[in-house]
């Protein structure tokens, strides 16, 4: 099973900086890394209001510069905050995560011997206090 890392913390605690750094560290070891972005307010690789799974192949030389990438899987949530509809938000998160598991994590050596297991970084929003903050 490939490594899966969930980046969680309060707003403005450098989650994005850490996830970019971790992405580069993993890309030095693996040929590609999956990035599940659940931060609909400030996503890493897509416009706001989307949840996405992006497969990254290249190290980012400048960690301070954001860049848009074409995601492999992307769902439009329609809001920059998940607090209005947390049920739909969670169903989207699990839908994309299940896609990742099917395509990049679960490997049946007999059926798909060529399948490469890809590590996953999960970027989360700074919503750690719950819906009544």
From TrEMBL:
GO terms, biological process: RNA processing
Alphabetical list of Pfam families matching this protein: CLP1_P
Family: Belongs to the Clp1 family. NOL9/GRC3 subfamily.
Keyword line: ATP-binding, Kinase, Nucleotide-binding, Transferase
Database matches in InterPro entries: Clp1/Grc3, CLP1_P, P-loop_NTPase
Limits of the Clp1 P-loop domain: 9-131
Molecular functions (GO terms): ATP binding; polynucleotide 5'-hydroxyl-kinase activity
Record-given protein name: Clp1 P-loop domain-containing protein
Protein species of origin: Glycine max (Soybean)
Entry annotated with the keyword Nucleotide-binding: yes
């Amino acid at each position: 099973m490939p490594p899966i890392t969930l980046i969680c913390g309060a707003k403005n605690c450098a989650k994005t900086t850490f996830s970019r750094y971790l992405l580069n560290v993993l890309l030095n070891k693996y040929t590609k890394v999956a990035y599940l972005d659940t931060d609909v307010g400030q996503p890493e690789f897509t416009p706001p209001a989307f949840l996405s799974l992006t497969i990254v192949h290249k190290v980012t030389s400048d960690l301070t510069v954001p860049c848009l990438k074409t995601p492999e899987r992307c769902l439009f949530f329609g809001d920059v905050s998940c607090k209005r509809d947390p049920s739909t938000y969670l169903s989207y998160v699990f839908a994309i995560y299940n896609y990742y598991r099917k395509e990049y994590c679960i490997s049946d050596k007999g059926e798909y011997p060529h399948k490469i297991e890809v590590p996953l970084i999960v970027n989360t929003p700074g919503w750690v206090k719950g819906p009544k903050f």
